Amino acid sequence: MKDGSYICGANVENASYGLTSCAERNALFAAYSQGYRKQDIQCMAITAKQDELCPPCGACRQVMAELLEQHTPIILASIKKQLVTNIEELMPMAFTAKEFL
């Protein structure tokens, strides 16, 4: 965060996969519940303890498109790889609240 603090999230698995809550959404919702908003978020890091990168799922990308600024750096990191991207690259032409009539 711009104030120097960190907000963490973790996957919360559920036997009914649709009810699983991803780390990305948990971290963003925690930040917003603490009063932070998109302009307060300096970057987002998504890490995986595996060789390959773990990009966010579609549901997380949708939430990120609405709760992050378009050019906020998103760092994907694994044991062997690292990529810096942003939500505009991860989800081009995202449908957000600005599209509501």
UniProtKB/TrEMBL annotation:
SUPFAM superfamilies: Cytidine deaminase-like
InterPro entries: APOBEC/CMP_deaminase_Zn-bd, CMP_dCMP_dom, Cyt/Deoxycyt_deaminase, Cytidine_deaminase-like
GO-annotated cellular components: cytosol
Superkingdom in the source lineage: Bacteria
A Pfam family assignment: dCMP_cyt_deam_1
CDD domains documented for this protein: cytidine_deaminase
Keyword Kinase: no
Span of domain CMP/dCMP-type deaminase: 1-98
GO biological process, one term: pyrimidine-containing compound metabolic process
Family from the record: Belongs to the cytidine and deoxycytidylate deaminase family.
NCBIfam families: PRK05578.1
Entry protein name: Putative cytidine deaminase
The species this protein was found in: Amedibacillus dolichus DSM 3991
